[in-house]
Specification:
Number of helices: 11
Shape: globular
Length: 287
């Protein structure tokens, strides 16, 4: 009597395994094709002069120095603002907030905000940071706008990472006389940090490639100087790439491919640093 359902379950399991494998292979193939195409088009353009030159109306003289510096400024400030705010908000909602209608409403709204189109955050940043707070179209306006964009992701990841920690760790800490804050800081948070850093990596990887919110707040598409403070105008690599792609000259298309390669390298470096930190936290955890 049980042979039929058992065989059917094995068949379903095999079909699901094959489907997942095919989906993975298809995704990797398309990703490889895109990366190879970009490398063919732009790798020959990547040079020291390309990295250290300002944009130009002539494609052979154009560079991405101002875009690289602007990207580093914006992403550094975004990480500085979003990580502590997101982690602290996640800790409060998970460990301190009383469960009730208001808390549930806040949690639902945070989850919904993670799926809001990025252009909405750009318009919000334009209204609050650029106009209301009079920060103008500056580096800090861009960083604060991207902070709003990725905060829901970091908050949600922090809460889920805290939920995954066995309650026995908390009970053991309380049994030794530790307070709630001491338990969170010295026991729960170090164990949850690898998961939190993983969510932060994904959030910052999304932010570094965003164009729409920065265009909405008025980031420049052509800038021939470097920002010297957080209140200076700026541009970033995605906007510079968007500007070059819209040009009809073939040379600018090659420049855009080269800029994409540099952006991918910056993303890999940033992710590698975060992964290294995550592994350090994992090695420090002793169960």
């Amino acid at each position: 009597m049980t042979k039929g359902p058992l065989s059917r379950n094995k068949l379903i399991d095999r079909v699901f395994k094959i489907t997942a494998l095919v989906a993975t292979v298809v995704g990797l193939v398309f990703l490889s094709v895109l990366i190879i195409d970009i490398l063919i088009d732009g790798l020959g353009r990547v040079s020291w002069s390309f990295l250290t030159s300002f944009p130009s109306r002539r494609p052979e003289r154009a560079g991405i120095l101002s875009a690289i510096v602007g990207t580093l400024w914006v992403m550094g400030l975004t990480a500085l603002f979003s990580f502590p705010l997101g982690v602290c908000a996640g800790i409060y909602l998970e460990e301190y907030a009383k469960k009730g209608v208001l808390t549930k409403l806040v949690e639902i709204n945070i989850a919904n905000l993670a799926g809001v189109p990025s252009i909405i955050y750009g318009l919000l940043g334009l209204g609050i940071f650029v106009r209301t707070l009079a920060l103008e179209r500056s580096v800090i306006s861009g960083a604060l706008t991207l902070t709003l964009l990725i905060l829901p992701i970091i908050i949600t990841t922090t809460r889920e990472s805290l939920k995954a920690i066995p309650f026995s760790i908390r009970e053991a800490s309380y049994a030794l006389g530790a307070t709630l804050w001491q338990t969170i800081l010295r026991q729960v948070l170090p164990v949850a940090m690898p998961g939190i850093l993983t969510g932060t990596i994904l959030a910052l990887s999304r932010a570094i490639g965003e164009t729409a919110p920065l265009i909405a707040i008025g980031a420049l598409t052509y800038i021939a100087f470097l920002p010297e403070s957080v209140f200076d105008p700026f541009t970033v690599l995605p906007i510079q790439t968007f500007n070059w792609v819209s040009r009809p000259q073939k040379g600018f298309a090659t420049n855009a491919a080269a800029a994409i390669i540099v952006l991918l390298l910056l993303t890999l470096i940033m992710n590698s640093i975060a992964i290294y930190l995550r592994h350090r936290f994992q090695r420090r955890i002793k169960w």
